[in-house]
Write a structure and sequence with these properties.
210 residues; alpha+beta; 7-stranded mixed beta sheet; 29% strand
């Protein structure tokens, strides 16, 4: 679950090609696996509800993130249809983070449980590899907390945070989450074997820490 965000804006003169044209081919709406640090861009992030036209961009990020099998309990061979059905399933609020039409991240917000547990939110985040380390995850995390409050949730819980995903754990702690429980050996890491998983939680009623 994790990622980091974008800030600022690139400036170009009239008639000059935008440096951001190097991010992806004309007409593309997703960020390919390139290192934004190497481009020297100043970026501004826009987070908005996802639309049907974002499906391909979301799939490209989703597929890239789950294929290594080291951060999410998804089948690394999960099909495009199944992935998008999960990300856009009824009752789920789906968002994308973009830089000038180039999608660099996505997240979902939903109830953690139904019925008596529906006042607690759950969320999942994915960042394009080339945009990691820039604050995309933090910006999406802050946006998600604000959206959860707006939708009336009283708390947020992450049920399955892989213990080796140190960047994500560090970010969630900075955004006010605490580790409330450990599931010993609950995740089979492709290199490290059976490792622990954390349950993380924060209230949305206290003063925001984001």
């Amino acid at each position: 679950m994790g990622g980091r965000g974008l800030a600022g804006r690139s400036g170009t003169g009239h008639g000059a090609p935008s440096r951001n044209s190097r991010l992806s081919p004309p007409g593309s709406h997703w960020l390919p696996d390139i290192d934004l640090h190497s481009l020297g861009l100043t970026l501004v992030l826009n987070i908005r509800p996802a639309t049907e036209r974002d499906r391909e961009a979301i799939w490209n990020i989703f597929h890239t993130v789950i294929t290594p099998g080291d951060t999410y309990a998804f089948d690394p061979k999960m099909s495009r249809a199944d992935a998008l059905a999960y990300w856009f399933r009824p009752g789920t609020h789906t968002y994308v983070a973009e830089q000038e039409r180039h999608v660099v991240g996505t997240y979902i917000l939903k109830t953690n449980q139904s019925g008596g547990g529906s006042h607690v939110a759950n969320a999942a985040f994915m960042v394009a590899p080339g945009a990691r380390g820039l604050g995309v995850g933090r910006k999406m995390g802050n946006h998600c907390l604000s959206e959860a409050r707006r939708l009336g949730f009283r708390a947020m819980q992450f049920n399955f945070v892989v213990s080796t995903n140190e960047a994500a754990i560090r970010l969630w702690k900075q955004l006010g989450f605490e580790i409330l429980g450990t599931l010993p050996g609950a995740f089979r890491h492709p290199e490290k074997g059976y490792i622990d998983v954390y349950i993380m939680f924060r209230s949305l009623e206290e003063a925001g820490k984001e």
